[in-house]
Amino acid sequence: MNTSTPYPAALPILLEHLGRPYPDRVRESIARALAVRDAKFGWEALTQLYRQEEAGTDAKDGLAVALAAASDDKVVDEVIALARDAGHGESRLLLLRGLARSKAPQARSALEQFSDDPVLGQEARRLTKQRRPKR
Predict the structure, then answer these.
(1) Tens of pLDDT along 87-98?
(2) How much is the pTM?
(3) What is the chain's Cα-based Rg?
(4) Which of 17, 18, 83, 120 is least crowded, fewest Cβ atoms below 10 Å from its Cβ?
(5) How far apart are CA 45 and CA 1, in angstroms?
(6) pLDDT tens string 60-79
(7) Contact 15, 8 (CB under 8 A)
C-alpha cells in the first residue's frame, strides 16, 4: 500500500487475511491495500465480505474502496445494487467512485438517480459533474 510498485503476488495473501478476525482498523488497512484493479480476481470474496461486514465499521469502508477500485463494466450492475442498499450505510459513498470510472451507460444513469439520495446525493452530483465532457 502507498507504493507505485505493483504487488500482484501479495494480493491473494491479503485477500486471505482480510477474512480473518483481526481488529477493525487492521482489516480496513488490508482492504485498502486491495484497492487496486489487479484485485478484481477476488471480486466474489470482496463482495461477500462487504455484504457481511457491519455498517459503520472502518473495515466496511475499506472494503467499499477495494470494490470501487476492482470494479469494471462487467460488475457495474452489482456495484449499483450495493450502492442502492441503504443497509450498507455511508460506505456506499465510496462505491460511487467505481461507477464514476465506468463507461457503462447504466453507471451514469445510476449516478444521476443517486443525486436525489440523502446520503449519496452530494457525492453523486459531484462525480456526475466531473464526468461531463469538457467543451
Answers:
(1) 999 999 999 999
(2) 0.93
(3) 15
(4) 17
(5) 20
(6) 999 999 999 999 999 999 99
(7) no
CA distance 44 to 50: 10
pLDDT of residue 3: 74
Task: Please report, for the chain, how many H helices and E strands are present, in that order.
Answer: 8, 0
**What CA dihedral angle connects 75, 51, 30 and 74, to 10 degrees?**
0
> 25: which residues sit within 8 A by CB, 6+ positions away?
58
- Going along the chain from its start, the domains and CATH numbers come out as 8-131 (1.25.10.10)
Q: Name which of 103, 92, 106 is nearest 56 in CA terms.
A: 92
Cβ atoms of 77 and 83 closer than 8 Å:
no
Q: What single-letter DSSP state applies at residue 81?
A: H
Strands (E), 3-96: none
